[in-house]
Amino acid sequence: LSLGNVIRGGIIGKGLGEAISFESAMADVRKVVNFDEGDDIKKMSADILKMSQTLPVTANELAAIAAAGGQIGLGSKDVREFTNLVTKMKVAFDMSAEDVGDSVAKIKNILGISLKDMEDLGDSINNLSDNSASKAREIIDVMKRTAAAGKQIGFTKEQIAALSSSFISLGKGPEVAGTAINSLYRVLATADNMGTKTESAFAKLGISGAFLKQASFDDPQKALDMFLQRISKLDQKEQMGVLVDIFGREFADDMATLVGGLDTYKEALKNAGDEAKKGSLQREFDTRAATTENSIILMKNAFNSLAVNLGSVFLPAISWVSAGISYLVNSITYITGLVPGLNGVLGGLIA
Fold first, then answer.
1. pLDDT tens-digit map of 121-138
2. How many domains does the chain have?
3. Are residues 28 and 130 in the same domain?
4. pTM of the model
């Protein structure tokens, strides 16, 4: 029997297996988290196991989320808060731990916002998802692609979320929505330097490229609303030509969809900034966490925590024995390599 088969057998083996798996998951956390004074990996491991007893997510998944927080430079105390918040998003938004951890970390980093602001954004995203044809994970996907360009111009996190939700609700997939929105942001930011054809198209809207750019940096949402409204008022025969001249053939259709769905966009802006959104993420989490499926996950997590705690007692001994066996095998391998013909003799004896 191999050592792996031995330690995985029976109740002790189950505990050892869970402990080894959790130790490996926490090793990834230790690599990327800067521990605050008085804190260490042992305390964080205990806290993550404790979290798994109240949050319907496995300890290993919580460790993966914690590692994502460490990768964006959060200290160990903030990593705990990040892990708790992202876990609620995972459950509320029905996303995998890996996807939500990576996405939220990137969006937070791109926008340069606090964890409290990130929770507020979670409320906006959940409220948009509840009141539109867009799903939270789709909105997050689009935001991950567009937040940098939107922030550069000056759009708020809620405004970026609303535009992302609108394109999804109007039938665009996350990848198409992302490239279309970035094209729109690019036009707003460089409107004064897009060539004579585009300048002529702006003139048909009663504005100049220089005016649109300045307005966009003064008040981006007001400028975008004005820009889209003026396009919507054009004669249908003229509208597509203007869109092609401004956005090119690649994105003209996408912009036509947005212009034709301005009511959807206005509703998204309202839902993203509505005070009623406050606590939306927590309420969604509470509803989903109360299901029988998640109750079973919590029960499994409780057993897993017990198994990890029991198995961890034996890990130093397992590590010591494994190192000893490795040394013995390596020594035999070295000796057989030095003596010609010894491999054949040993093989014959074993046979």
1. 999 999 999 999 999 999
2. 2
3. no
4. 0.82
